[in-house]
Every structure is written in structure tokens, then in C-alpha cells.
Amino acid sequence: MEKPWGGRFRERTERVVEEFTASLPFDIRLWKEDIEGSKAYCRALMRAGILSEEEGQKILEGLDEIAGELERGEVELDPSWEDVHMLVEGLLRRKVGELGGKLHTGRSRNDQVVLDLRLWLLRTIGEQRELLAELRRALVRKAEQWFGILAPGYTHLRRAQPVLLSHYLMAYNEMFKRDSERLSECRKRVDIMPLGSSALSGNPYPIDREFLAELLGFSRISENSIDAVSDRDFALEYLSAISICMIHLSRMAEDLILWSSDEFGLVELPEGFCTGSSIMPQKKNPDVLELVRGKAGRVIGAFVSLATTLKGLPLAYNRDLQEDKEPLFGASDTFQGVLRVMVPLLEGLGIRKERLEQMASGGFAMATELADYLVHKGLPFREAHRIAGQIVRHCEEKGKDLRELSLEELRGFSELLDGDVLLWLDPHHALRRRGVPGGTSPERVKEAIERAKEELGL
Questions:
Q1: For an engineered disulfide with 296, which of 139, 187, 250, 392 has Cβ 3.0 to 4.6 Å away?
Q2: Of residues 156, 225, 243, 260, which has the active-site annotation?
């Protein structure tokens, strides 16, 4: 196949080189964006008087026909085409002859590919922010459904203090809210129209770039042609944003794996999202959640891959930048797949209420309340902390829980401990005391749920 740049060369490109350098197998997914950009550029050439009305209409009709053929899978993806841009141009020239070659006037694959990537990311980010909103809605619905149920709060994977189960769920809602905001901020830097930068120095023809931006739905145009074609920081920022979100998803998956184990027994995973063992009949394995946890590494790896590619590149365009697409597409597909599976998994999640509430108040989770009671009676906190620690040690030695101690036993550690201390050892009392903004009191958690419902249109 004749190369569009073949005039400089006497020898044909080796087949092994075509196969090695071809990006068509993975950048073919940009065909819609490439055709959209080509149609807009055709109109800009018509506006500049470089294409006549008749020529422009023939090219536009040809591009529409190619779009239909690609949609129906009728095009052979031969690696000799090199990439999606040359594929579309080559098919166009077959349809309209040498007129098709005019479409590339002033345009380079360098500004063409970055345009396609930006168009693709704009749409992808919009879709993924909506999936994140669905994930948050699932969390908020569960928080409302299970409002008032106690849960053990952990630090260092040891029981620490009781919280509302809804407060725990709303913690992940906050994380995913920030993830959505990060994607929204990233989208602002994706929303820059690079077409007209040409190879690196700018388009030498009177192309109206503002007109192109309007046709393609961009808010603004790039300010520097070298920067426009040589950097992929917008893609790196996107990978950073979804890597952080995948870390949050992985942490939630880990919590659910632990909480659904026999040792914790706090939640029940929907069977449709678990698998069994080929040898052990009793197993109900959390494979989906384990894969979510594992796939976080793939997305983080994609960020590292692109960052490593970019870090040593001189300006302007270098072929190394072809290596941006596979990690970008792979990470995006992985992220989107995780979001799609986590929403119905959360919707089908069940809980073991009695076990949750038992764990919330057991294991000396009320020890801080004991110290706070003594502070309420006038002791400095450090002294109150020391006495509460002595009481915990006494309970461990006697094999008792705090609430099993008699008032007489408690007063042996401090005369400040009166009959009302038993109220302070009630976990519901502990929750009500935490009424600061952001706290786990029922009032504050209810407010948080209502705010989220309003934000998410529930």
C-alpha cells in the first residue's frame, strides 16, 4: 500500500516494521472521533476557501459513508494503514479520488490524534461521572435503608468506637464525591481544542480555529502549537483521577471482603456476585471484590506507564506518544467495568444487624466513653485515660466486658464513677454525644444523607 509520506523514500517499508509500528489495532476505537474531526476540518477548509462547496460536500458525504461501513464492521483493518487517521484518509481517497488528499491540507496527524483523544476523553469522563453518581446513589440508598443501625468502627483493624452503619457508608460517598470532582476538574483541561496546531508550528492556512472549536464542542483553543501536540498531561491527569478512585474502590472491596468473612460476619454478599470452589463445596468466594482490588493495580500501572513515557521526551512530537493509548484505553475500560459491577453488588448487599450491633459495643469499644465520663466529672483527660486503661486491663484479667462490671467494681478505680456511668456505656448515648458537624450522631448522619440525596437527585 502506498504511504502518504512515501515520496521521500526509495524502498518500501518492511512488513515487520508495519506490524511493529502500527497503532490501528488499538486506535481504531477512535474512528468516530477521527471522522467527526475530519468533517469539522473539512468545513473549516471550505470556510477558508481552500475547498469549494462542491468539493467539501463530496468529502463530507464520503466520510459519512465510511462511518457507516466502520459501524457495520465492513472495513478490513490491514496494519499497512498504520493508524486510524491513515485508514480514514485512505478509504476517503478510494471514494472521492485525489480530492480526498485535500482534506489533509495544513493538518498533521500530530494535531489530529490529540484532537481524537480529547474528544474521546470528554465523552468518556461524562459517562464515568454518571456511573460514579449511580454508585453514590446506591450507597446513599443503603445508608437511608439502614439508618439507626450500629456498626463497629475500626482503627488499625481493631475495634475502636461505635458508629452508625450509615456513617460508614457515607464515608465512601464522600470519597466518590471527591473522585467525581477530580474528573470534573480534569475535564476542564481536556476541553481544549488542539486542531490547527499542525505538526508543531501551527497551521499555515487561514483556518478559523474558534470556528473549529465551536463545531466540535470545545470551550477554548490551545494557546501554543508545540505544547498542543507534544504533551499528554490531560491524559495523565485523567489516569491519576481514576487511579485515586480505584484506590477508594479497592479499599471498599477490602472492607466488604473482611466484613463478609466468617470471622467478621457483618454483611452478606449477594450470591450472584460470588463464586464457589471446584474442590470445597462450602465456599462462597468474594471473587468480584477480589478482582476489583486487583484491578486497581492495573489502573495505577497505566498511570505509571504514561508518566514514564512522558518524563524524558524532548519537544515536540515523538513517536513514543503512540504508547499513550493502550494504557489509557485499558485503564479506562477497567475503571468503567468496575463501576458497572459495583453498583448492583452494593444494591444486593445484605447485613447481619445483631452481629453488627454486638460488635459495635463489645471488645471495649466503649472505653473512650469511660474516660470521657471521668473528664465530665472533672478529671484531666490523661488521668481519665489512665484509669479507663486500668479498668480495661482488669476486665481482660477477669474475662468480663465493661458493661458486666458492677458499680462497686468500677468505684474501686475511682470514686467519681457513679450510677449514671452505665448510661455512658450505652453505645447509642455515645453516638448522640458526637453531634459536631461531620460526626456520627443520628442527627448529623441524617443531615449528610439528605444533602447527598439532594446532590444526586434522589
A1: 250
A2: 156
CA 38 to chain centre: 30
Please say whether the beta carbons of 331 and 242 come within 8 A: yes
What's the confidence (pLDDT) of residue 2?
60
Can you give the pLDDT at residue 274?
A: 92
Instruction: Find, among 388, 364, 352, the residue nearest to 151 by Cα.
Output: 352
Catalytic position from the list 52, 184, 201, 277: 277
Instruction: Say if strands 267-268 and 192-193 run parallel, antiparallel, or are unpaired.
Output: unpaired
Total-model pTM: 0.92
Determine whether 156 is an active site residue: yes
Structural domains of the chain in order of their starting residue, each with its CATH number: 6-105 (1.10.275.10), 110-202+217-358 (1.20.200.10), 362-456 (1.10.40.30)
Cβ–Cβ under 8 Å, residues 429 and 161: no
pLDDT of residue 272: 93
Instruction: Provide DSSP, 158-214.
Output: EEEEEEEHHHHHHHHHHHHHHHHHHHHHHHHHH-EE-TT-TTTT--SS---HHHHHH
pLDDT attached to residue 14: 67
Q: Which residue stretches of the chain have pLDDT < 70?
A: 1-11, 13-14, 18-19, 21
